[in-house]
Amino acid sequence: MRVLGQIVRHLLLALGGVYMLAPIILMLASAFTPTADILAGRYLAHPTLENFQTVAQQVPLGTYYLNSLIVCLATFALQLLVCVPAAFAMARLRYRGRNITVWLLGLLILIPFQVLAIPIYLIFRQVGLINTLPALILPFVGSAFAIFLLRQFFLALPGSMFDAATLDGAGTLATLIQIVIPASRPALLSLGVFTITSAWNAYFWPSFVLSDSSSATIPFGVVQFINSDAVTAYGPQMAMATLSVLPLLIAFLFAQRQFIRGLALAGQAG
Amino acid sequence: MSTRTARLTPHLLLAPATICLVLFVAAPLVIVLVLAFFNLNLVTGTSSFVGGTNFATEIPHPEFARALRNTLLYAVFTIGPSMVGGLLVALLIHGLRRGQGFWRSLYFLPVATTLVAMSSVWRWMFRADTGVVDTVIAPILGIHDWLSDPNLALAAITVVGNWHQIGLVAILYLAALGTLPQDQYDSASLDGAGGWNRFWHVTWPALGPTTIFVFIMTAGSALQAYDVIAAMTQGGPLGSTETLTFAIWNRGVHYFDIGRAAVLSLALLVLSVAVTAIQRTGYARRLENGGSR
Fold first, then answer.
1. Residue B292: is its pLDDT beyond 50?
2. Which CATH architecture does the domain made up of A60-269 adopt?
3. What pLDDT is recorded for position A269?
4. Contact residues, chain A, for B272 at CB < 8 Å
5. pLDDT higher than 60, residue B163
6. B249 and A83: CB-CB below 8 Å?
7. Which of A57, A86, A95, A104 is deepest in the core (most CB within 10 A)?
8. B54-289 architecture in CATH?
């Protein structure tokens, strides 16, 4: 009876698993199959890399990858530089108006970026940032969500840690750099996974500020490629999609725990 | 000197973040409000105050009602199925003695993918007659060519929306299930409570805070749905998949009609605030308290 229940659970999960895996497996299989074979339903009958070669010939893949990499790393690095000190001040330092700043932060988190896209788009047009990498980075550097998250973490750090630092005569900055940041590695790691995958996968904002490939990131390149190419060239299309998805899938398989923890933050981003 | 530095330090630490948040959240929020009352010509760079004209044009326009309706339908058909599906997956995995990690990773895989790229894969799977979906589903249900049918295109979009987030919902419920106190189950079993009773009287109330949290999250992503639509349908056919967020892009960036795009943005803001307001009401409160019903 017990065993039967377990088997039923596995079977039901496998059934749902088909829904989860089908698009990923079909994409991977098609990416390595000539288009003629895809149309005939003979996946991987003659495995080939020609789809990837076609993509590489038609699309500045190196530029896309480099842009994506720069945007991801710069967004996260600047976010740390800007948000960690603010979160630390709001969690651990005394200053006038602290309650108001915390309350305002809670308010700012509620505003979806989509509401602000039109005005930011206009500002960027005005200052000539359209089709540049900074346009993809700047709006996400000062993240109310990141500050909120880090503040929660800093609040939970034991007070004795700070008392000891004060006794040692450590200044505020020294405390932040030598004690708070090393103790916050798990929180910073989760935030890093969250920010970097969001930046890698982003399409909404790029579709506002990008119109050509010079500053395009991979997702923008995928859509451009699929819309420009002949509809029947499914092989290269799936190869292009694979090139966008694969780096994250590989990273996920190697660091599942960190990935799940980081991406689960999406729930709190609201 | 040193006390003065000490008093200045918090403000210095806050300054960069304050500047960023003012520039990219507070100021844009004010600007979007102002823009709704102006007519902006992006080509000539001129603007004129038009009062409530943008509201008077946009709100009675079929586009507005359609975008609201599509957003609402998308929300209903992603929030419900994702929450029920995610909870089911979590309950199934939670009761496993072997292979929990395997199934958890498998269901989470879609969450870690690039949604816009996977949407192009789904578009290919949904292509008329020869696509995987039509080959499998059409003989059973008799429906085909979803993406060209104004009645089915939004359904296809929700299939992808659910696909992308069920794993995330499942993970959140799994984490909550892992923290449930075992003694309540033991006493429920002693009382002779069956599987369903145990779920309804012990598990469901205890999962309350997670349920609220998941609702807010799925509702938020429903309001912000964009990638799937941009890659699969571009809002079509006949506007049947144009949601509020997609309409903002379409009005503002595609048609350069900034005033009306600002009105649509404000509508999105109102809906987003409404979703958070739900958190403060009746049933949500009771779930949040996680106790007796």
1. no
2. Orthogonal Bundle (1.10)
3. 53
4. 110-112, 115
5. yes
6. no
7. A86
8. Orthogonal Bundle (1.10)
